[in-house]
Batch of 2 targets.
Target 1
Amino acid sequence: MPRVTEQHRAARRDQILAAAVRCVAREGFHKTTMADVIREADLSAGAVYLYFRGKDDIIRALAERSIGRVAHVLVAMQEQQPVVRPEDALQAALEELLSTAGEAADDLLRVGVQAWGEALRDEAVHATVSTQLRRLRHTMADLVRRAQAEGLVSKQADAESAAALLCGAIPGFILQRLVLGDLTPASYVDGLRGLVSPAGR
Amino acid sequence: MPRVTEQHRAARRDQILAAAVRCVAREGFHKTTMADVIREADLSAGAVYLYFRGKDDIIRALAERSIGRVAHVLVAMQEQQPVVRPEDALQAALEELLSTAGEAADDLLRVGVQAWGEALRDEAVHATVSTQLRRLRHTMADLVRRAQAEGLVSKQADAESAAALLCGAIPGFILQRLVLGDLTPASYVDGLRGLVSPAGR
Amino acid sequence: MPRVTEQHRAARRDQILAAAVRCVAREGFHKTTMADVIREADLSAGAVYLYFRGKDDIIRALAERSIGRVAHVLVAMQEQQPVVRPEDALQAALEELLSTAGEAADDLLRVGVQAWGEALRDEAVHATVSTQLRRLRHTMADLVRRAQAEGLVSKQADAESAAALLCGAIPGFILQRLVLGDLTPASYVDGLRGLVSPAGR
Amino acid sequence: MPRVTEQHRAARRDQILAAAVRCVAREGFHKTTMADVIREADLSAGAVYLYFRGKDDIIRALAERSIGRVAHVLVAMQEQQPVVRPEDALQAALEELLSTAGEAADDLLRVGVQAWGEALRDEAVHATVSTQLRRLRHTMADLVRRAQAEGLVSKQADAESAAALLCGAIPGFILQRLVLGDLTPASYVDGLRGLVSPAGR
DNA sequence: TATGAATGAGCATTCATTCAT
DNA sequence: GATGAATGAATGCTCATTCAT
């Protein structure tokens, strides 16, 4: 019976979070009401509180889900065999980010932007975001060092700084993509490649 | 008397917005109450409504003020004579961003992050943010083209893509700076320089 | 099977009421939730509803149990042979009240105080409390009359009024004991004896 | 302007408390909703919260008002010149208690019974009740000692114990009066006088 | 009998905005 | 222009009770 119950529990939490993602993508954390989530999840008020402590708890879970996805994508990438140029890794990560299955990819990105804002005022969300950001940077730095070992990147480059820049390019891509809607991973990373290629030709 | 009245009006609006910046930096747009702003501005409830239509009006003004600052900094930079490498322009812009006088620079950056989130749900804020983002990218593209003309950047690079990447690096800097607190403009842009320098040395 | 079933039923009811007494002593009738009682009784929600119609039913049973105890103590006392002075009967009753076995005596007294309040708003609880109060007074009046017959109390005294006063002294003892915690039956009844003894000595 | 504002404030608080007394007398502390009080006070929800921190704050103020009245009555009595027999003082106090002007006397007594119950679970109400109870007992003990000095009460009586008993008679009077409705101060105190008068006549 | 997930009406409280002074 | 008491719809959350298993 624990099996069924645990599965049930996880499924219900997911049902609620998926509904909340859609609401928050539309209205942001604070304009989304519990009534919105309850209606979207097609549950009763009491049921939602059986699976989450309250609205804050849902917000934190959403922050984790949205911010975690980015780091997750890169970690999965880094674990695959061939060493690649960091630019290529960035491009692959951005492409992966836009193709989330099951859930509308855009919705999760929108929730992520909300999470950035919330990290500045809620200690728990801040903890989630800073942890994931650090993990992202750490993974990226490893990637850069492996590229340096293969001669794909100059040995003089500081891997940590390069990782910070590469990670830093991600929010800017998401933002421009969501606000202006005119960027593809390829064109964006080509901008980096253009700057990288030697001048004077 | 229009002179005095107009000055008075502008001063009052600024007093209210400065107060609102401090509140929003602390609690975000939606957890900041009008009562918070009114108290922080040391005014009466009625007074605030003489200068702003309502809370949304204040939010829009804050979005403009915070997002506008970034573009403003770069435009001012581009208007100065010598042509510089885009990386140097980016570094100078980030440094300028951290040294806002009068208002705590961090507070305005925090309000900016809130504005990104709000742009996804409020049409008016979206208009402000997208306009400023486009202006930023346009200015940056000009800068890149001038650098190409001087041989500082490869002629094969696509100026628009490079501008998108360079602009995209800014939100990531702000976010890492506010959340992790461990980045300087110099180290961040060095990350870009490291990737740019030819490998194999 | 009726035997076993009936015993089982009584045992379950008692298990639930005992749990409810502990909860209500802590939090009062209305801040005690059914969930509290269910947890304290170590049963399931459904089980409790097999033995009680609902929360009101439990409240009424608790009122009966707590208020009934006082009258029960005095009735038991009156049935014993020797005729005593009413003051001595009061003292013995108060002592008996503080020494309830099995259940913490204080808990039941606390529930009693809750029942006084509930009697003012719930007709069923009012019926219980007024019945028990009347029974208490009736028993006490009998006691006074028997003491008068033995010359222990002035024949001119009105037995009904004396009974009302003696019964009326009980809530005040309970209240001062629970709130101030500094009264013993002996010292309290000595207060009465002091007033009774002729002045001028 | 402070004068007007302060008076206004006190008047509004009183308006709300008077409404709350009527509600609580009917339904008890916890079955009285804020909506009940708001409706009875003929105010808006927001207005009530301008004068009280919340429901708990109102409950505490009601406890103070109801319990304080009893002690207040006795203190006022003790300050008058002639020394009286404690029984007479008790009777006068009970009579005063039943004749509160402006507010229905019964309503305030009912709120008092609620306050006894609340004192057992809310620390703030407990503090109010225990303070007032102590003040009541202190005043009564003074009264007894003055009666002893005048030879109205035996010198051998312990004033503190007698005071405890006399104070203890008050809740019992209130309770029997509210629940059974058949007691007058005179008949009740006559019960005490009957016990006091020497037997054997 | 027994379970415990689900229900949904009801509650205390907040807050953007107004308007009589 | 300036004030701040007043408004009341809206919000997050609770809890007595039911019922499919």
Target 2
Amino acid sequence: MLPTSSSAGLLANSLDRLLGYQLRRASAVMMADLARELGDIDLRPAEVTALMVIAENAGCSQTEVGQVLGIKRANMVPIVSRLMDRGLVDRERADGRSHALRVTQAGAAVVADAQARIERHEARFSSLFDSATLDVLHAVLPVIRSQRDEAEG
Amino acid sequence: MLPTSSSAGLLANSLDRLLGYQLRRASAVMMADLARELGDIDLRPAEVTALMVIAENAGCSQTEVGQVLGIKRANMVPIVSRLMDRGLVDRERADGRSHALRVTQAGAAVVADAQARIERHEARFSSLFDSATLDVLHAVLPVIRSQRDEAEG
DNA sequence: TATTGTTATACTCTATAACTATA
DNA sequence: TATAGTTATAGAGTATAACAATA
């Protein structure tokens, strides 16, 4: 029945020529692989990214973390709560209304572990391409992102 | 506080060098733009893709549609139900256990409208790059996808 | 008046397990 | 025994609106 394109060749699918669709599918594959790699240490993708940003920016507020990650203030609450409950992140009053977030010693160890896992995960995919191709990707993707870099409105 | 990379320059963020992260953020931006464009005709991204595959493959089953789109059998049920409830898709018994799906006349009109919207959406992003760059993207993304093209297992 | 954190809620997409009826 | 459709349920991420405390 008119097998085209890349997908095994079951049904016709003109979606494959769409950048947005290909981006979505490719991203889903990498996310699934990352989730699997991080599942061992019971961290979800959104939690690791938050943890890493906090590790790199001791004293930042959770609203700031959300702005960098494109996660809304309201959605940061359960993420930070869980990181604190697990003893990976600590916070102290900074401002009366804001908190200064910091990674604990246990948190730093988890970050190191997570980073190693992320490197492995990344390598599985980036090793498929030559450096010129990777350069194109790293030039292009931020441009797409900047078309409407979503933070909090 | 160590502003780096692309994101406005708030906090340090080593995530930006990760292919998977950039892919995820870029995809989210395009998905949000698509959802906005399709919101006018009350179609969600998952529904449009299903509708388009059915339009291109008259007589296919919903399991087949799911396989092409990487959507599990169980998750196809509400998608197809909604398309049928809206009179965009019709089905007849094919096999006793499977149905042959077809786009109705009303469905075909909606597909045409949706395709025009998708073209507009795509153009907003693909116009940012030259054709050599787009060629790289269209070569690379299916390779990433094929690393574990998820259908139903 | 604007901002930080918070609660509550809803929506979209995805995942699993189990059932039915057919083949 | 395997397949197509279905049901029920859970999880992850995201979106909005509203509120309290603070600046």
